[in-house]
Amino acid sequence: MREGPDISRISSLIGDPARASMLTALMAGKALTASELAREAGVTVQTASSHLGKLERGGLLRLRKQGRHKYFSLAGDDVAHVLEALMGLAADAGHLRTRPGPKNAALREARVCYNHLAGDMGTRLFDSMMARQFLSQPGDDLTLSPGGVRFVREFGIDLDALAANRAPLCRECLDWSERRSHLAGSLGRALLHRIEELGWARRDRETRAVLFTPRGRNGFEELIAAP
Amino acid sequence: MREGPDISRISSLIGDPARASMLTALMAGKALTASELAREAGVTVQTASSHLGKLERGGLLRLRKQGRHKYFSLAGDDVAHVLEALMGLAADAGHLRTRPGPKNAALREARVCYNHLAGDMGTRLFDSMMARQFLSQPGDDLTLSPGGVRFVREFGIDLDALAANRAPLCRECLDWSERRSHLAGSLGRALLHRIEELGWARRDRETRAVLFTPRGRNGFEELIAAP
DNA sequence: CTCATGGTTCGACGCTAACCGAAGCATTAC
DNA sequence: GTAATGCTTCGGTTAGCGTCGAACCATGAG
Q1: 3-state class of B224 per DSSP?
Q2: Read out DSSP for B99-164?
Q3: What are phi and psi of B135, to 5 degrees?
Q4: ipTM tops 0.85
Q5: Are B61 and B52 in contact (CB under 8 A)?
Q6: How many Å does it take to go from CA A54 to C1' C8?
Q7: CATH entry, A7-89, from 1.10.10.10, 3.30.70.3340, 1.10.760.10, 3.40.50.2000
Q8: Residue A160 to residues A149, A153, B154: CA-CA distances in angstroms?
Q9: How confident is the model at residue A103 (pLDDT cuts 50, 70, 90)?
Q10: Is the CB of B159 inside 8 Å of chain A's CB atoms?
């Protein structure tokens, strides 16, 4: 017996065809629900549930509960790295691109999620705030940094009024089109409200789309640009 | 159902404990016979024969017949790379097969990763070469800069002979203990070979450890010191 | 409240694959 | 030649795991 980490445990997890299909699907970087992964793997939801439990316990997947949905994503870059290396070895057929299923371009760009901004512009705002360290995520919860407080105040939001509310200020929310995080919570709602207040955008009556004016688009891009 | 490279086939091969032990043993870079690998895995020779057949048919092992012996070795750098990456994941989960001991310390400092230098000294060599811009990473691939060419030549390596080989010259390999990059590819192999040639170090018979002499250690530190 | 939906647990079935004993080749040693 | 060593093939046993149907729990909608 040689020394070294136990490879077989992890590898046997990836070694099942159904689980491999799930992991491959998650390589696109977007979180998927248990049902979607079941369909992806061609098994029933019961079977998928068993597989997903093993993958999560094995440390390959990260789980985020949201309502009655469970969103799974790869646990980290190192997992993706292993999968990529395995695909290189298995270089039989060329790999396949994913179809995101675009319904409405405007909806994917910007839309309302309950009461906050979602879609591409929502995730970009979130990413920008994370990159500038306006938000930090020490544990499971999001908190606003001092720099973030300044940023939000300068945008014209009354933070004290929000803090008085007992609803959580910052919450992370997963996108159905982008499958990436954006900002929810009372701050997320306030941000969208302020965007409408400034005349940057208005909500469509029929759909959940958020329609930006040219001027609003410029303002938004300026807002999320690095300092 | 998503088509793609069949990572489950390869991964299920690695996923068996006996086969994983064999592959781990072969990470030392030495070719081993079927009987030795059987002992390594703790199974009878019949069972090992079956496993080795599968591994060879699966493209993970290369076979060299010599008399009545069969020498097995890893099929290539890409296989070693996958195994190393898997060890990184497994070590992360804290499922080490053997508890850390004195032998383990030597392994962390310097060991063989298939045919090149890994461990602390491997990553330090890599870092030093990156810092002096001997290696550049424009896209995904590593390339040797003119300064790097000079450095390697002065160390006594015949670069032209390496370039004649169609195997990639520089490759990045991720360490399971350091979780940082070190140099693989034909250049990585040549560097380790030169280190042994100079009498700076020798490989341990039993483990993957690379044991440096005091003189070799001095030479190595001088080599990676900034100009 | 009731209904619908997403996900889990349980039990049973069936298939696969790892394992070893014994016998069979093949090659080298004497 | 015979003996010994290295490895493979064959049969048969066993254990594990993937799979699905059915029932169950939890959340959200109306």
Answers
A1: helix
A2: ---HHHHHHHHSEEETTEEEHHHHHHHHHHHHHTTSEE-SSSS-EE-HHHHHHHHHTT--HHHHHH
A3: -120, 140
A4: no
A5: yes
A6: 13
A7: 1.10.10.10
A8: 11, 10, 66
A9: very low
A10: no
Q: What residue in B sits closest to A91 (Cα-Cα)?
A: B5
Selected residues 22-51 of chain B with any CB under 8 Å from a CB in chain A: 23-25, 27-28, 40, 42
Other C-beta atoms closer than 10 Å to the C-beta of B195 total 23
The pLDDT of residue A163 is above 60: yes
Distance of CA B196 to the CA centre of its chain: 15
B180 touches strand D (CB under 7 A): no
Residue with tokens 């491959």: A24
Query: B103: phi > 0 → left, psi -120 to 50 → alpha, else beta; which?
Result: alpha
Q: Is the CB of A44 under 7 A from strand D?
A: yes
Give residue A219's pLDDT: 94
Q: Which two tokens stand for residue A69?
A: 């949905």
Whether the Cβ atoms of residue A15 and residue B8 lie closer than 8 Å to each other: yes
Cβ contact (<8 Å) for A15 and B17? Answer: no
Lowest mean pLDDT among B21-35, B38-52, B136-150: B136-150
Residue A120's pLDDT band, with cuts at 50, 70 and 90, is confident
pLDDT of B66 reads: 77
Distance between the alpha carbon (CA) of B18 and the C1' atom of C28, Å: 30
pLDDT of residue B171: 78
How many angstroms separate the CA of B189 from the C1' of C17? 37
Give the per-residue pLDDT at A76: 80
Output the pLDDT for position A204: 76
Strand D close to B107 by CB, under 7 A: no
The residue ranking higher by pLDDT, A10 or B161, is A10
Q: What six digits make up the tokens of A180?
A: 């990436």
The CATH number of the structural domain formed by B7-75 is 1.10.10.10
Give the separation between CA B205 and CA A147, rounded to whole angstroms.
Answer: 57
Annotated domain spans of chain B = 7-75, 78-224
Residue A140 clears pLDDT 60, i.e. is over it? no
